[in-house]
Write a structure and sequence with these properties.
By secondary structure, the protein is of the alpha/beta class. The protein folds into 2 domains: 189 residues, Rossmann fold; 135 residues, Phosphofructokinase domain (Rossmann fold, 3-Layer(aba) Sandwich). Helices cover 40% and strands 16% of the residues. Helix 7 crosses helix 10. Bound molecules: 6-O-phosphono-beta-D-fructofuranose.
């Protein structure tokens, strides 16, 4: 059996754990196994940059962050655009797939990666996709790997802010990753006791933020902590077209939304406001035990799907059971936070403000 493997898009903590799960599942059940690892995601598949790996390469990597194969972003929207030398990328990927006589290509990645995996399926390649992203925004699976590990990092950052915020009676904003969806901000914010949580799915109003800060001050709490998603958006901005929003943002001098909110808070309340951006630390370090177990299960289920020759699927986790989901049913769809979901209602019930 010949398997190709690649990790594409932004990395996360449990990519190695997932690859290990797949390889262990196959090696334990197939006598004659060859694994071709493509370097830097689809780039390796396009340009034929790969290496024959053995199961030994996947030993001792369960707890290792990053990816032993490296990763890169190869936007789906440019996949049909020839490269600078006129190379047809899709044909090049298919050629390398055929040249190596692969039985299946195991693709680990997020939404964009999944769209290209679906394209390759459409073009006749046998693919299996494993849902990776700290954003947890892949449609069709309850959970993506990397998410829980990133919550751990973001939550630790907010935990550390708590003591210093209390000492100085300041307003602190911690900017959490997530441009399109707010799962990570929601979970990290609730888990670390943030007072105000701003998500892309719930446009905020400045007045509501100020009200929440005032209410805390009146209650004798001198500090306020905001967990703000990278993609948080005001009600006014939510009404704009993409073009208008881009124009507005580029006219502002703030490096990100958190700085704009910090400036607004200081101007309106006189409070000292500070911004902390944990940034890519949220994708770094060792995967938390939950992610290691999740990836081992997804990996084993992927290996089983390959043994069953049941290709063209994402291996999802639904109601704590692995599930094979047809790629054509999920590719291109986003799983966003429902503003009316129970978790948001519960958070609001205990007094957390979402700025709406
Ligand atoms: O999709 C994962 C993610 O970490 C997002 O949360 C974040 O907005 C983005 O990637 C950052 O991308 P890059 O690593 O290309 O800066």
């Amino acid at each position: 059996m010949r398997i190709g493997m690649l990790t594409s898009g932004g990395d996360c903590q449990a990519l190695n754990a997932a690859m290990r799960g797949v390889v262990k599942g196959l090696a334990n059940n197939v006598k004659d196994l060859e694994i071709y690892g493509f370097y830097e995601g689809y780039k390796g598949l396009i340009y034929g940059n790969y290496r024959l790996l053995t199961s030994a390469d996947f030993s001792g990597i369960l707890t290792k962050g990053g990816t032993i194969l490296g990763s890169s972003r190869q936007p789906f929207k440019y996949m049909r655009t020839p490269d600078e030398n006129g190379l047809d990328k899709v044909e090049a990927m298919k050629d390398n797939y055929k040249k190596l006589k692969l039985d299946c290509l195991v693709i680990l990645g997020g939404n964009g990666t999944q769209k290209t995996a679906n394209l390759l399926r459409d073009e006749g390649c046998n693919v299996i996709h494993l849902p990776k992203t700290i954003d947890n925004d892949i449609y069709g699976t309850d959970i993506t790997f990397g998410f829980y590990s990133a919550i751990d990092v973001a939550c630790s950052a907010i935990d550390c802010i708590h003591t210093t915020a209390a000492s100085h009676n300041r307003v602190f904003i911690v900017e959490v990753m997530g441009h399109k969806v707010g799962w990570l901000t929601l979970y990290a914010g609730v888990a670390s006791g943030a007072d105000i949580i701003l998500l892309p799915e719930i446009p905020y109003e400045d007045d509501r933020i100020i009200e929440a800060i005032d209410a805390r001050q009146k209650a004798g709490k001198g500090f306020t902590i905001l967990a703000v998603a990278e993609g948080a958006i005001s009600k006014e901005e939510a009404k704009m077209t993409k073009k208008e929003l881009k124009k507005k943002r580029s006219a502002e001098t703030f490096p990100s939304v958190s700085y704009r909110i910090a400036d607004m808070i200081t101007k309106r309340t006189g409070a000292e406001a500070r911004v902390t951006v944990p940034g890519h630390t949220q994708r770094g370090g060792s995967p938390v035990p939950y992610d290691r177990a999740l990836c081992t299960r997804l990996g084993a289920a992927a290996a089983q799907a390959i043994l069953d020759k049941d290709y063209g699927k994402m291996i999802a986790m639904v109601n704590d059971k692995t599930k094979r989901v047809p790629l054509e049913k999920v590719a291109g769809k986003l799983k966003a936070v429902d503003p009316e979901c129970q978790m948001i209602k519960e958070a609001k019930f205990i007094g957390i403000s979402f700025g709406d």
